[in-house]
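Sample A.
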Amino acid sequence: MAELNGEPVRAGELQALALVNYGHFTTMRVEDGRVRGLGLHLERLREDCRLLFGTALDTGRVRELARRAVPASGAVTVRVTVFDPGLDLGRPVAAGDPHVLVTSRPAGRSAPPPLRVRSVAYARDLPRVKGVGLFGGLYRRRQAQAAGFDDALFTDLGQAVAEGPTWNIGFFDGSRVVWPDGECLDGVTMRLLKQVHPYGSATVRLADLTGMEAAFATNAAVGVRAVSLVDGVALDPAHPVVGELRRAYEGIPGDVL
């Protein structure tokens, strides 16, 4: 399903998105019409729209448009993308008419296997914004997969851990959950877990990983996913804390879309 402002989208309307690739989005897992952290998703869309387009986004209208993509029951992944079809490459400052593209796909039901990741020094443009320009992150993901890993893990030049291409990462040091304080997108799943599970924040460098017992990745599509390897450092994917975090997340009630 793909609709632009509530109408079937035409190829020409996606030209600016495909060729210029300027905009922002959020991805929500919708289960039986409910979304965990719906208010955080809408807050993200509102703030990013103000930053990228200098205008307010009607999040009530966004809810109406997203609701059209949701079946009465079952689980789907809904992506809301905000962009201006009239954006001109030579004068992006004139882009101030954001449109709402809603797409949906079936949501995965089985828990994905643990991630094996390779670190790379890289930072996304405007890490705090969930921008549509995914080239840099996907290129690093491709490089990691070509080397036999599942994904990439971004660090700064000092090897301080930041985030994955489309997920946050956390660790368990034997006594507490630790979220790295590197610059990253504050994912909705991470923010929800911080509300319901004790944690600490600290600079986590690659050299610190040998002292960690477990690691996990979070995003709205999969919830909590174990990380079993970072470079050559093995971590326990079956550690009880991973299951504890997964249950804590799944126990958060969803909001009606």
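Sample B, a different protein:
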Amino acid sequence: MLGVLGLVITLFTMAPQAQADDGVVEMPVLVPSGADYQKNLKAEVEFWNLARMAKAALNNEDQDAVPPSGGWDSLSKPWPVGKGLIARTAGKILMEVTDQDSGARGLSACSGDVVTSANQSVVVTAGHCVGYHLPFNANILVDNMVFIPGFDGKNLQRHTTSTDLPGKDVAPYGVWGVTREWVTGTWSASADWVLGHDMAALLVANPQDPRPIAQVTGAQQIAFNQPRAQHSFMFGFPTANERNYYAPAKNKVSAALQRTVDGRTLMVTEGDAWADPVYLNDLMTGAQPPGSSGGPWMQNFDPATGTGLQTGVFSRYDDPAQIIGMLGWQEGPNLSATQFGDEEYAVFNTAQSAALPPAVSSK
């Protein structure tokens, strides 16, 4: 997630596929339906061999996560592998990123969550995870986008050159290709975090499994226009320490609070949220740096069962000392969530109403 000056309202130049009457914008279709649907879906998923996955999914520091000296705390701590529904529905998103202006290409990561939907195939994440246009910065589109529910990076070797595909030790519920993606009209028109509504809904499918994803992983309940400033939980797969407010190199917090992340692990932040009076998001102090963008923001969460009510997605950072300052938007110390309202419901409803191509298994 990229920080911005926050004063310039911009327009997408990435030719969205369609804009509905309710303002929902569909991004370019990643896997079109038709005769080549299954072949293209398979190619999208198999782009992510172990070498590419390690490059995108792990930090670039050759170092695994280092806990705070007093141990992990409510600012962020690893969620136990396999514990409850959230361990299946929350996942890592990997994508190839292209700057439409310069042609530069790279790999990146976000987080997402499977939610209840009519077609049982919807994952929600942040709008900036699927694309944005910023002045003096980037005109970003994504391709080869996949969702890995229950991602487990402990056995993912760094700097591997293996072209093998990941097994169930890394992707226990498979690798799901993103076929279509929608964002809010506000995010499409002002993709700079000023006006918010940084949310996207993804349609996913697996070339190796004809079932919709919710039948494989289960799904979290999703809700809109819920009460603000509640006790909340945020889940994500943080990866990048160069913008980690709590990293030792930053020297912004006491040694007891300093920590690093590695991208291998689902992390959870818990705390009392408060409403941001300027940007109309909910805020919570937490230590989840980039890579956690798009992770689920939950109310009424039960740690015993891993179930809750998803009311938002992690969008950006906030520093109360820099209301519109770029540095505060890049590092924190607070996590800022897009809370789901009418625009986000329209995006979700469009995605859950989308027709699915005929399910075909290549097994």
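Observation for Sample B: Confidence is low (pLDDT under 50) at residues 1-16.
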